[in-house]
Amino acid sequence: MNLTQEHTLDWRTAARNGLLGGTIILYFGAIGMVSTFSVRNMVGTFLNLGQILSIMGAIAAGLITGRTFLKADQRAKVIQMGALSGLLAGLPPLILIIMGTLVPNSTMFVNINAELVEILTFGLGALVGSLALIVVSGLMGVLGAAFVLLGEKYRKALINALLWVLLLGLFSENAGTVLQKFLGTSAVRWLFQNKSLNPIAAIIIFALTFAFSLFGVGNKGKTKIQSLPSEKQKQLRLIYIVLGLVFALALPWMVGTFLSQVLFIVGLYVMMGMGLNIVVGFAGLLDLGYVAFFAFGAYTMGVLTSPGGFTGGILNFWLALPIAILVGVTFGIILGFPVLNMRGDYLAIVTLGFGEIIRVLAYSNWLAPIIGGAQGVLGIPTPSLFGFRLGKPEYMYYLVLLGSLVAAFIAARLRDSRLGRQWMAMREDEDVAETMGINLVQTKLLAFAIGAGFSAASGAIFASRLQNIFPNSFGILVSINVLSLIIVGGLGSLPGVVVGAAILVGMPELLREFAEYRLLMYGLLLIVMMLAKPEGFWPEETRKRELHAKEDWDNNDADAEVVGAAD
Amino acid sequence: MKINLERLSWVDVFLWVFRVVAIALIIIGIVNTLSSGKYTSEQWGTLIFAGLAQGSIYALIALGYTLVYGILLMINFAHGDIYMAGAFTAVFLADKLATTGFLAVHPWLSLLLLMLLASTISMLLAVLVERIAYRPLRGAPRLVPLITAIGASFAIEYTFRGLYGPGFHSYPDVPPLMGDVNMGTFAVPRVQLVVFFAALVLMVALYYFVERTKMGKAMRAVAEDKEVAMLMGIDIDSVIVITFALGGALAGAAGIFNGLFRPQGVYFFMGFVPGIKAFTAAVLGGIGNIPGAMFGGLLLGIIEALGPNLFLEGLGIPAANQLKDAIAFTVLVLILIFRPQGIFGERLSEKKA
Amino acid sequence: MAAILTAETVTKRFGGLVAVNNLSLEIQHGQIYSVIGPNGAGKTTFFNCVTGFYTPEEGKIIFNGHEIQGLSTDRVTRMGISRTYQNIRLFSNMTALENIMVGEHPHLKTFWADAVFDTPRFRKEEQQALAEAQRLLDFVGLKGLGDHLARNLPYGAQRRLEVARALASQPKLLLLDEPTAGMNPHETGEMIAFIQMLRDKLGITILLIEHDMKVVMSISDQITVLDFGTKIAEGKPIDIQKNPRVIEAYLGRGAASGLTPANAAAN
User: Considering its fold, how many domains does chain C have in total?
Assistant: First the structure.
């Protein structure tokens, strides 16, 4: 495949990239992402997220084409081929314009309508707008290709600066509330207008971040640390941990109530992620019914503490929490038992079925006298500590922070223990692991039970924060959410869980108006991650170390081949 | 088998307890229900026919799972959504046919058109998913394609949500399918019989395709041993594509049958639950086994139709019909505990695969 | 000498195929016992029966006085049998030391809660386990390679690492499945010496599957020859070399007489 591509590296490659990029935009337009995203202004009122999305295809196509030609040592052709890619990337979206113009109110393709045409044509009308779209796409293709020709230093700086501007523009509302405390109201008012970045401010930020990263502040520090003796490195790491903790403690007071609530939710997912990471990342068991344990925790907390509930609220939060965890662990063992000597892919579907059974049961009249059926459990009290009600999200954030830290600590300790090695061995090769004397069922059960415990704890805290819980909070989507975040962060990686939760839970909470595309993004992300970056964004530290070890051995690989061939 | 107490591990003990309890509950439920005499045999008959119609739809979807599993040893998690894609797309054509009056004049032609459309859409989508999400990962650790399959499942669902909107749609009534057929002491809705027999025809056709045609033989060869098949000059890639296409086409047809059988509830998430249930059916019959999937589908349909009244009411569970979905999943768990290779599956080797 | 492993009329079928047919053999303490035979003769299947991976349909396998047929693999291992694989099966994404430490599993006692609370017991045991793994690594001649990923080790080192992992469970009986496969003559020589050292220094009984007749003839105390799952000969190397049925099984009917299997393999 690769060979033939190299041989026919000509305008056809560029055309293919362009059409592919354009088709992706066609897809985004048809499912309504372009229209929905255009609600968010990024810079001023003239650049919104939808527009950025609709030219993304051309930029990406130009970039990829440029890189391909550069790699093939055809530097001279980079710009013109980029332009071709860009121009062609403008063609597929024309289908949207045509359809939207001919049938402005389709009952079938609900998102291909006059509004979409308006966005794609820059409000210039179908004919002129279509031409404009192609021209702009061509230009973007050129920009994408030209980017490849820059030196690496400039490229990095450019990406850095663009990211800053885009992120600040995207989250201008939230950034505003945070920055208000440091810069004062008037400065923030100037920075962010109409829920977007002030154009002048955007240019200034761009220039500043560009300059900063160009004259390198960040990179030197890193290499310096690595050159330090290991004793010093340890001390430094300790300092970093302490600083990180102080930061985490101060965080809710810096960002305000709304963002604290977001942090709280991220924390819940970090707890769950730590648990599922043990099950999937360490032990290699794909559990898609993970939400069941979250539900057990939440319902146990609800039933035991709600005054209007089945028990009339006999316990307070602190007494109910360990019971909730225990219930989760118990059900983890009970549910785990029959399924754990099944092969991996069966396990996935059976656990998925479990999740559904739990949901069906939660809705049923049968169990309604205890857990309230469709009405759910209402009036769960907020936890209080020494008579102090943890009513605000800031306080609940501390609770969930503590929970996450405990979960991370337990996960880290187990990973570096005999049990961790057992899990890893099982993940690598189940049969051989058993031949090493490892009792597979017991080992899997431990992973399942511990994971269930974390999830149940998370659910219990969730219930006491929300105060009312309903069966529809415990759907398959929660399981998929947790699974996605540990995969995006890096399977088996503890910091990866936090990174994944921040990206996949935190960001969507801030971008509520795009909620309907959240799961689409997760689905696409799972595919793309597995295809392009299966180790995740923040892989395990050992994995990194191991990759270094590999480099050392590259020299010896030749010997190995000789040995292998000698027979 | 000689029972040696010393050798029994606590895991085995627990599994045995689980098995005994499960069987006891089922028997108690059946005995209680039957002895209460609450339902007549005609009512049971009605339920069984409804179960057969529903089961034949499961069977058609299950074939897709089984075909792909037989060849790639992977669960095409997105198959339920491939089924949805055809049904969801064709509902717009059905609507158009109904409002223009074409459906009333040429009902059978209309049904054929709908089936063609749904099958084509499902087929194309199945092939597309294979190309994008599975093919590049062939030979990767098992967990990897499974994760992309889950990703594909959600991507498809929400793509169609974006395309056609989040609302519910329903299939129009087809005049010649209305009414009942008299079966002596009780009546069966005509649509159920039509769906059942049409599905049967498709299943038999598939069976002959796999058993008799050259492509079918190639498929079986690839299922048996990929490397040897490759040495024999079989193009593995095209066999896999055909497999996905076949599975998709059957799922698309199943979508139309489902639309006739229960016209409401056509929306982007409609494939999720039938997907798991069809997978259950495939496992029930023995995954990788084509007649097994057919039989498993029908059996699951009947169990599900009878289950709430037969097992659950006898155990004193109120509003047992709410738990209908849970029955199928319980069947899945039970079958994997009692007979993981399924009813028709061969016991390859307990630990091999 | 008492028998450490006795197989009594063991039969294993796969559907209609009889992979091991009515096999009986007896391995004495401290022996190096080889099972040889053409491809598909049922040698590895027999190994799998001994380690509990397969359950034989008929017959008994007795290890140190206990019937072990049908026991799960992990229990067999904990009784003192460990093995290596024909096609090396290391935990390839774990380091060499981690691989060995997994092998030590049956002898580690701490509970998982010990790990969470970092009890002195846990720390001591982990230290000992690491030291023992280091020692085994040195023992098999892989000193200093402990932090490398198993899959990045050269072929010969992977074979040795697999042996080290098998030794980590402190077995009484070690099953080696073609330990010299894919090795050059020099490495093969080293492996022969190494196997003999295992027996002489550690007193481990060794059951060996091997294709290389030079290896088999030079180190075996006793040999069983399988063909189509059935034992066709048993005896000391010198007797096996002369056995006409063995020669026939290896070279086919009507092959030039006078050729010993050893010569045949060398050709």
Answer: 2
